[in-house]
Amino acid sequence: METIRPSSDLRNHYTEISKQCHEERSPVIITVNGRGDTAIMGLQDFYQMKSELELLRTLAEAEEDVANGDTAPIQGTFDRIRKSLMERKE
Prior knowledge:
With 90 residues, the chain is α+β, with helices and mostly antiparallel strands. Helix content is 64%, strand content 17%. The protein is built from four helices and three strands; from the N terminus they run βααββαα. β2 (28-32) and β3 (35-40) form a beta hairpin. 2% of the residues are buried.
């Protein structure tokens, strides 16, 4: 569950906010004039969220390919991957 704090807390209590983000692994919403403005989260959580989003986009593209009939036999796909990996080694 995220916490909501005013922007002055970011300036005056940064260490506490950072610790909260890391220990609770939840974002802190910073407000300006009572309205949400910025979300702060731990760097590890940011990278994880970014990776998960990239994976979801890849899966969505794959589902779209399947729906459009843009598929290929699995053996040919593995052969192309092996060939590409072997070329990288050289």
